[in-house]
Amino acid sequence: MLRSFALCLLAVMLAGCPNPQPTGKATPAQEDIFIRFEKDGKYGYINAVTLAIIEPQFEKAGQFSEGLAPAIKDSVRGYIDKTGNFAIKSDLEYGWDFSDGMAQVTAGGKYGFYDKSGKLAVPLQYDQANDFSDGLALVKLGDKQTYIDKAGAKVLDAPEGAGSFHEGLATLTQNEKYGYIDKTGKVVIAPAYDWAGWFQEGLAAVRVGDKWGFIDKTGKVVVEPQYAYAGGFKSGLSSVKVGEQYGYVDATGKMVIQPTYSSTSAFSDGLAAVGTGEKYGYIDPAGKVVIPLQFDGADDFHSGRAQVWQAGKWGIIDKTAKFVYGPVD
Predict the structure, then answer these.
(1) Is 232 part of any domain?
(2) How far is 203 from 230, CA to CA, in rounded Å?
(3) Looking at residue 62, what is its pLDDT?
(4) Is 42 inside a domain boundary?
(5) How far apart are CA 109 and CA 18, in angstroms?
(6) Which among 7, 95, 181, 249 counts the fewest CB atoms within 10 Å?
(7) Is the domain of 230 the same as that of 183?
(8) Within a domain: residue 142?
(9) 248 and 176 belong to one structural domain
(10) Same domain assignment for residues 143 and 128
């Protein structure tokens, strides 16, 4: 999301939402996208595609992930489904979003994981835990780190400084330098970088000194470090910073969209939110402005819908910039 001011997690819970009439069902090409809002101290959701409402009724509510969202209602806690009903009821203290089919949960200072049936598939036994990704989760018990599978079985001892796996590789930090290990624990890219990100679409952003570039999974430098910042690849493009402006490069390092924006997001659903000064709009992968920079804030497009903010109000637009819902306070 691009906004002209910083927002914490709870601040994106929006206030004052009247009840629109549902417009129908999502088509097979449209995944249901839910936007959380607040009204009179309770949280609810609007389906950005059908405009169906889950009425504000939850004291606390998280974002939907993999079809479920953590929520608390009248002291009942757990995970709700897309109808607003509790698909999983829990007596645990806290639960995070689902990731890779599993949700991290905690009680009494110990961590475990629910699966999507609501089974505590990995018992509460760890002192620290990362979310599942690539089928594995990094967990810590005492001073020992391991990777476990979704049944809770140990797969691999994790060296100190190891991170989560993405696209088959995990970051490894040693002596303040970053490299990567594979799923056998072998160091496949020696720690040599001042910072290194996850692999996305086969490439990872790395930093040498104050310059950023990209490497492939063999450790080959594909794009020499030269940028003030580099993000991750999505839809074949990555945002990079040149001087004080952002543009986009392809996987060869070719500048596809010149650095002319003060802020950018990754491409999603064929468009990327970009900003110049205090206004935001959307561009296509060729760099064409398809929705003029006119909003005070702009979220990513999903299923042909995006949440935007304008003149103190928010609403949902389609790819023609038409408001399909709102704007409302």
Answers:
(1) yes
(2) 11
(3) 94
(4) no
(5) 40
(6) 7
(7) yes
(8) yes
(9) yes
(10) yes
pTM (predicted TM-score): 0.87
Tell whether 169 and 234 lie within a shared domain.
yes
The answer to whether residues 174 and 227 belong to one domain is yes
Last residue of a domain, one of 246, 261, 276: 261
What does pLDDT average to in each consecutive run of 10 residues of the chain (329 residues)?
36 28 40 88 96 96 95 95 96 94 97 97 97 98 97 96 98 98 97 98 98 98 98 97 98 97 97 96 98 97 96 96 95
Give the per-residue pLDDT at 329. Answer: 85
Q: Which residues contact 41 (CB under 8 A, 6 or more apart)?
A: 59
pLDDT of residue 4: 34
Task: Map residue 107 onto helix, strand or coil.
Answer: strand
What is the reported pLDDT for 30? Answer: 52
- DSSP per-residue string spanning 236-269: TBEEEEETTEEEEE-TT--EEEEEEESEE---BT
Whether residue 72 lies inside any domain: the answer is: no
- In angstroms, the CA 94 to CA 248 distance is 38
Domain count along the chain: 2
Residue with tokens 């018992």: 123
CATH number at residue 119: 2.40.10
The residue out of 158, 174, 190 marking a domain boundary is 158
Query: What pLDDT does 29 receive?
Result: 44
Indicate whether 166 and 151 sit together in one domain: no
Residues 6 or more apart whose Cβ sits within 8 Å of residue 289? 281, 282, 283
Q: Structural domain of residue 100, as residue ranges?
A: 92-158
In a shared domain, residues 166 and 229: yes
Reading the block at residue 284, the tokens are 């296509």
- 6-12: long-range contacts at Cβ-Cβ below 8 A with a sequence spacing of 24 or more? 12/36
Tell me the C-alpha distance between 172 and 264, whole Å: 28
Instruction: Compute the distance between CA of residue 279 and CA of residue 205 in angstroms, rounded to an integer.
Output: 28
Strands laid side by side in the 245-249 sheet: 229-230, 238-242, 245-249, 255-261
Q: Is 8 exposed, middle or buried (0-12, 13-18, 19+ CB in 10 A)?
A: exposed
| Residue-level pLDDT at 25 | 42
- The pLDDT value recorded for residue 17 is 29
Would you state the pLDDT for residue 1?
Answer: 58
